[in-house]
Amino acid sequence: MSGGALSHIRVLDLSRVLAGPWCGQILGDLGADVIKVENPDGGDDTRGWGPPFLTNSDGGQGDAAYYLCANRNKRSIAVNLREPEGQAIIQSLARQSDVVIENYKTGGLKRFGLDYESLKADNPGLVYCSITGFGQTGPYANLPGYDFLIQAMGGLMSVTGEDEPVKVGVPIVDLFTGVYAATAILAALEARSRGGPGQHIDMALFDVQAAMLANQAENYLVGGRVPGRMGNRHPNIVPYQDFPTSDGRIAVAVGADRQFRSFAGVLGRPEWADDPRYARNAARVAYREELCGEIASVMRRRTSGEWRAALDAAGIPCGPIQSIDSVFAEPQAGARNLRIDMEMTGSGSVPLVASPLRLGGTPVSYRRPPPRFAEHTGEVLQERLGFEQNEVSDLMARGIVA
Predict the structure, then answer these.
(1) Is the pTM above the cut of 0.85?
(2) How many CB atoms lie within 10 A of CB 384?
(3) CATH number of the domain at 10-212+335-397, please?
(4) How far apart are alpha carbons 94 and 118 in whole angstroms?
(5) Rounded CA gap, 69 and 182, in Å?
(6) Which residues 6+ apart lie within 8 Å of 269 measured at CB?
(7) Residues annotated catalytic, as ranges
(8) Which end of the chain, N or C, is surrounded by fewer C-beta atoms within 10 Å?
């Protein structure tokens, strides 16, 4: 499987912005042949979501960094879905595809004959993944959904921040929806490989956000108490937060009683490990304010570097609160090759963040850089559908494709 675990899978990606493209990139990284379908009028919105932008070889403005983060290992075609000939092109590609990804409004593709029921008639094995804000059912099914809105409505902002609700610094609901969608697609493909039919996957950002509340949601369901904002503190574990040092702050994650015993020793307070207020985690949660105040007073006496060295030596999870440039400067980031560089048409070498998927037998491959808008329209139409060059040129002249 030199081409990757999914080198036999064809994906037709009708999505744009982030959740769908993130899903498509995961499948592409694993070897799938992903065709990204864009609107002829400028393509994926994120191409313009900057600055920063790439600088083209001719000095002009290229694509935005936002677009680059989610679109490698794809080929881009531009097709006008409002035209019957454009719809026919997508229908023909769908007949040859294993997977379709789309994030139009609920029911939005039905009028083009590109909904699941229409496409499965010609391809019963099709795995069709719809990604929307609130899903295909329920009173909110027709409402638009954006990451920030879902972070607010889905409870995440109620447990993030200090005095005021704060969204996470990356569009985490979109990203997790993309990961969940890829997982669901792989499950559906596995079911199909065992003789089952294709199926429709209904992914909703709202559902994903509720699932991602994880321990906080379960704390509420079991305990009946609505969680609130705790800043960097953990609702169920103490000490599990950042503390001030003489020159900054350092994050400490003591997740077990045995770790706390070691931690207390490093701080020069071994008696804490036998204090009934602190010896067990449940007690430490009850006496959080008192204990963490004492920890802070001790940790202010040394630098972050000194504490990191001492805590690392004792096996206590800890680390600095770093800016993004420092993350990529870490020796670990270099050892794990977290930055990759690819040659992008018209822009030269482009830096990207590597996939975190490390498969020993079928590793991720970086075959294609993020495509330029409509870069592969002619190539795909000729390769997949047998169009002649003059036919492609005619379609371009009439605005059916770009």
Answers:
(1) yes
(2) 18
(3) 3.40.50.10540
(4) 10
(5) 17
(6) 294, 298
(7) 174
(8) N
